[in-house]
Structures are given as structure tokens and as C-alpha cells.
Amino acid sequence: MQLSSTLKRRIAIALLLAILLSLSLASCERKEAHSFTFFGSFDTVTTVTVYGTDREAERFSERVGELLSHYHKLFDIYRDYPGQNNLKTLNDMAGIAPIELDGEILSLLAYGLWIDSLTDGACRITYGAVLSIWHRYREAGVAIPDPALLDKASLYTSPELLSLDEAAGTAYLTSSEASLDVGAVAKGYATEAIARTLIAEGFSDFSLNVGGNLRLVGDKARTVGIRDPHSDSILLSFEMESGSLVTSGNYERFYTVGGVRYHHLIDPKTAMPSNRWASVSVLTEDAGLADALSTALFMLDFEAGLALLQRVGGAEALWVTPEGEILSSEGFPLN
């Protein structure tokens, strides 16, 4: 049978469309690196990279955005959210009554109390009474708090003031003067929780950088870097596969009074910024642990820090002194 010219044209067009569609689908199914940036959650910038198809990357981006917003609202100590109890609600109800909280908040609080015990109070989530004073003065930027004011607030920072009833799903700050500040643990804890959720949902090759809390998943070696606390340059870089890297430094949030820099890392033993180190970086698998340890090690001397790492196991650290000297635990990858 002989085909008409019109039918031939239609067949040719159909074949062409089929070829273009197959090429388009092949492009969508090609696995490659996709990067995304998020703003606002945890009052910081989050950058993520996933290795996969376009469709997988789109789904990954949507889930990361949802999860960041979810944990930010739960762990926020500054803002209320309609119909939701969060850590601000708990602080607001201090000395009044226990409140019901989401299980993930209770888990964070239990983790924070465990970290307090592990670090002998060097990383303390119940230190909000003192940290809130420093926050106000840092925002104003013209003076430092009166020592008497800090001493009084320090009386209301014991971890015993936080009562958890996991069976009832409630928490209670038993003094109206007490408050929580989870800044040393919440971002890392959320980063780890997000990573584990994404793994459970089938994503196997990605990186999360939540305001400097780095979590890598997969078997690809990636080059990571540690900032020089005395400049904007990279102090040290090395290759890393799965795991977490977190740095606490005196260059992140600070203000200057009378030519002296006062940063945000406040030592619970003195109620003053700790000036022992310029930065401390921790390398371990769990982002929550890395975050908490980087704060605790910033408060401790080198020997006490090494002893803490030995108690924890599976974590390495690098310290930079105010003078620029570099110290590290034995297993930290310096080369």
C-alpha cells in the first residue's frame, strides 16, 4: 500500500516527537549533582547538594525545605507559631505549669541533658538565663553585662530545673527565672534528624550544610575545608566521605567594646566568653554530637578536651589558639 504524502508527514512528525521525548526523558533520568540554597531556617543559610536525576533532586529539595521549616519551628526560642507549642512556649511557661510538647522536642531536651552530663556542664541547654543577657547586650553593642547581673542569672541555670515527663509528653522549667537556649545543640541535632529522614526515604548520596553544620551521606569523597579563624581563608582542607564536620569559632557572632571582642560562646563556669581558643572543629559521624562537642571543647583546655573525646569515642578535633597555633587529636586528618 502506498502512503499519501500527508500521512508520511504525520508519521515523520510523530517519530520526531518520539525521539525528542525519549531524549528529554533520558536527560531527566541522568544522575548528576544538583545544589539548592535555603534561607531563614535556624536564622542561617543552608546549602544542600544531592546526586540524582532531575526528578529526584526536585523531590529532595522539597523535603529538605519542609524538614528545615519543621525543626526550626519546633526548636525556636524567639517566635511563636499558631497552634504549636515549641521551646519559646516552654520558656514562656517557666515556673507556671508543665506543657505538652512534640516528641521531637522532648527528644532534643533529653539529648541536651545527656550532653550536659557527658561534658560536665561545658555544653548546657539550661543556660538561657545568662545567654539571654549576653544576647541583649550583643544586640545593643555598646556595653557588656554587669557581673552582678550575670551572677544572679547563673543561679537559675542548673539542669535540675528542667523536668521532663516523656510518658505524659510534657516538660517544665520549675523556676520562673530559668530559660532554655539550645543554640549549641539544636542546629546539629536537626541536621542529623533531617539526614536520617532523607536516608530512610531513599536518598543515599547528598550533603547538608546548615549554617556550617556539615553532614555528608554517601561513598563519594568530597573536599571539605576549615576556615582560618584569623582570616577569611581556608586553614585546612581534606577529603571526607560520610560524616559530620562542625566548627565553633569566636569570629561568628561578636561585638566590640573598648577594643575588646566579646563573642557568643559563653563559658558556664565564668558567665563570660571563653578566650581559650579561636576555633574548635569536630569530625564525627553524627551532626548533633559534632555540634555539641565543638561548643564543649571550646570551653575546655586541651587535655580535658582529649579526655572528653576519649570518653565519647569515634570523634576527632582540631583546635586553633588565639595566637594561631594548631593542635589536634591523633586521628584528625591534617594531611
Short description:
The protein is built from nine helices and 17 strands. It is α+β, with helices and mostly antiparallel strands and 335 residues long. The strands form five sheets. It has an eight-stranded antiparallel β-sheet, covered by helices on one side.
Write the layout of secondary structure elements.
Elements (H helix, E strand, L loop, with lengths): L4 H25 L2 E8 L5 E8 L1 H22 L11 H6 L6 E2 L2 H16 L9 H13 L6 H8 L7 E4 L4 E4 L12 H15 L5 E5 L2 E5 L4 E6 L6 E7 L2 E7 L4 E4 L2 E4 L2 E2 L4 E2 L5 E6 L2 H13 L2 H11 L3 E5 L5 E3 L7
Helix pairs in contact: 2-7, 7-8, 8-9
Oligomer: single chain
Strand neighbour order, sheet with most strands: 1-2-6-7-10-15-16-17
Share of helix among residues?
25-40%
Radius of gyration from the CA trace?
A: 25 Å
- Provide the β-strand percentage band: 15-25%
Task: Supply the helix-strand structural class.
Answer: alpha+beta
N- to C-terminal distance:
75 Å
Nearest-integer average pLDDT: 92
Residue stretches low in confidence (pLDDT < 50, at least 5 long) are 10-28
Listing every helix as H and every strand as E from the N terminus to the C terminus, the arrangement reads HEEHHEHHHEEHEEEEEEEEEEHHEE
Largest sheet: 8 strands, antiparallel
* Shape by Cα distribution: globular
How many helices?
9
How many DSSP-defined strands?
17
